[in-house]
Structure to design on (81 residues):
């Protein structure tokens, strides 16, 4: 990934980009956004949660079943590697 931050001085903006050779012949996505806008959008979309916010959302039995399922799934994944 190539990333840079620019501060345009007028509406007409020209920029030269030097890409890594492995980008040649591939679709490369280019977009512009204002940092302030992204911070505001992220704050509105995903308010930060703490693990304690989820306390009591499932029973102890459900938690144990989920934990067993996760361990089983991880073991199957490791076996398939």
């Amino acid at each position: 990934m190539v990333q840079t931050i620019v501060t345009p001085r007028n509406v007409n903006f020209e920029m030269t980009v030097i890409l890594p050779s492995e980008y040649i012949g591939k679709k490369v996505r280019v977009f512009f956004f204002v940092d302030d806008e992204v911070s505001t959008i992220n704050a509105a979309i995903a308010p930060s949660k703490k693990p304690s916010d989820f306390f009591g959302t499932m029973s102890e039995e459900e938690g144990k079943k989920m934990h067993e399922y996760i361990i089983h799934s991880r073991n199957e994944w490791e076996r398939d590697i």
